Amino acid sequence: MRQLSVKQLEDLGEALLDFENEADLLHWLSQNHD
Description:
It comes from Microcystis aeruginosa KW. The chain is mainly alpha-helical and 34 residues long. The chain has two helices and no strands.
């Protein structure tokens, strides 16, 4: 999480509203890394 850009953190904040479980978070992180 510390390696995410400000834009990625903003996008993650919005995406968190749609996550249902940890797998959703892990999937998002795998799709949104540099």
